[in-house]
Amino acid sequence: MQNTSIGTKARPQEEDHVPPLKGIRVLAFTHYAAGPIAAQYLGSLGAEVVKIEAPAGDYQRKWIKEPTADPDAPSPYFLGMNRNQRSLSIDLKTPEAQAVIREMISQADVILENFRPGVLERMGIGSSAVLAEHPGIIYCSIAAYGPAGPSRNKPALDLIIQALSGIASLGGAADGPPVPAGAYVVDTYTASQAVIGVQAALRQRDQTGLGQWVRVDMMSCALHLLASESCYALNAQEPASRGRNGISHSHQPAPYGIYSTLDGAIALVAYSASLPDLAAALGLSKQIIPLLAGKGPWTNRDQIAGILSGRLRQLTSYDALTRLAPTGILLAPVRSIDQALADPDVASELVRDVEHSYGGRYRVALEPLKLSGSALVFNRPAPDLGEHSVEVLRETGINQDRIDAMIASGAVRVPGSPENRT
């Protein structure tokens, strides 16, 4: 019998797919990473996102790129975090621009911002003012710290939050300095929490007609990212410590870790019952078996890892993986990002080629979400600064004379203007 419970419908044909957030208009006052990633994801879910940028543009546009790149070339970081958005470049410090933004807010469903607390409030478009005038709007703020704590007005970046939250303390050998994650994990996780919050608030608005203030902060998100580790820390009698010889998590016994080989490195994960087979495959039974009694994989984890490390350094990655594969343990080579992106398991769906006047030909990695009833949207590469200024203002109802005057005064920027080139 066909399942007819609530929420199940016949799958639409591909051409009939409707993005989940189609018709939702988002004004994104975003820069750096967490805000743009959240805005991009909302756009990929079908929302119409307008990125509000200062005349100088998002700092990320030219921040991280190859040293040999042209000074005017866009940063790959910006290209990878600002798809599915249009750019309105407007000087929010001018009264005329603030008036235009208020007109745009009256037509928006969602405000997304990650400026320091107080910046938008001073312009009269903070959460309290906007929600008082437009009670149906969703106002999402991304901050570094929670709004009630003593650090609420302080800025921070991913690395600072990794340090303060404890994430960095978990990486690296016990006899060396802590090693932070080699990616902006807090930014990305915080952006995901913002997207979840916006979607939940939109669903509640469907039921009540009321919007609300959605708040996420990087510090809280980092600790939630450490949900298991945080619970351990809150309840364990003794604090866990990092291993000295490759163990990659303070709560894991041997051999959980990354081990160097002659030509690279491999990752090993094995249950205690598999350790005798692992030792035999590497010719280490005499050294390792006596260390496995009782809770030996935990209490002797550094000694076991040290023995494994010494042996694996004598083998190539291929040789090590070949010897260990029959044991059934989990193992893998440590790959570069380039190698991972070429993996046939992901490349066909995750990597997309782009050709645009801004950035030229380049490739991006897409969002991982898959929806059976609706493919994610990819209809806009990252925009040039002010690429859609005129288009967005016209849609807002601003007449051409007023637009021309704002461009002439520098309150609004468009591509190719002298102000942009300087």
TrEMBL record:
Q: Which GO terms describe its molecular function?
A: transferase activity
Q: What is this protein called?
A: CaiB/BaiF CoA transferase family protein
Q: Where is the signal peptide?
A: none
Please give the InterPro entries that the UniProt record associates with this protein. Answer: CoA-transferase_III_domain, CoA-Trfase_fam_III, CoA-Trfase_III_dom3_sf, CoA-Trfase_III_dom_1_sf
Per the record, the domain of life is Bacteria
> What species was this sequence derived from?
Mesorhizobium cantuariense
Keywords in alphabetical order: Transferase
